[in-house]
Write a structure and sequence with these properties.
The strands form 2 sheets. Strands 2-1-6-5-7 form a 5-stranded parallel β-sheet, with helices on both faces. The protein starts with a strand and ends in a 7-residue tail after the last strand. It has 4 helices and 7 strands, in the order βααβββαβαββ. With 136 residues, it is an alpha/beta fold.
Length: 136
């Protein structure tokens, strides 16, 4: 099984996943996880990925250009479903875990700030929420 995790914090993701059950699965070659830094796809000199929401509103959202470019680059290597980990998605449960475990390849996109620009949603196959709480 191959996962790509698109995030602004690839070191934090990989440091956490290299341990326990996930780490052992990776060591045995059962699971391959690669973290992709979305900032690497930003076209500005500061590699910034945040912007004001399109159409106005409070806070900052992840701007579409680097997220979409990162998705397109990863899709060249991984044909799996693109799953956005966001608050409006279906709540993750055991049944969903069983269904996703049948997939050979998956791409996860981690949000940040107040969310992600709405124009990016057309690139997602599924949005999953882990529950009514906020995680780093």
């Amino acid at each position: 099984m191959q996962f790509y995790i698109m995030t602004l914090f690839p070191d934090m993701v990989m440091d956490g996943l290299n341990t326990s059950i996930i780490g052992r699965a990776m060591d045995k070659g059962l699971l391959d996880i690669e973290a992709v830094n979305i900032r690497d796809y930003a076209f500005n000199k500061h590699n910034s990925v945040d912007d004001y929401p399109y159409g106005g509103g409070a806070g900052m959202v992840m701007t579409p250009q680097p997220v979409v470019d990162a998705i397109k680059a990863v899709k060249e290597k991984n044909k799996g479903k693109v799953i956005f980990l966001g608050p409006r998605g279906k709540t993750f449960n055991q049944e969903m875990a069983k269904e996703l475990s049948k997939e050979e390849e998956l791409i996860f996109v981690c949000g940040h700030y107040e969310g992600i620009d709405q124009r990016v949603y057309k690139y997602f196959d599924l949005e999953i929420s882990l529950g009514d709480f906020v995680l780093t």
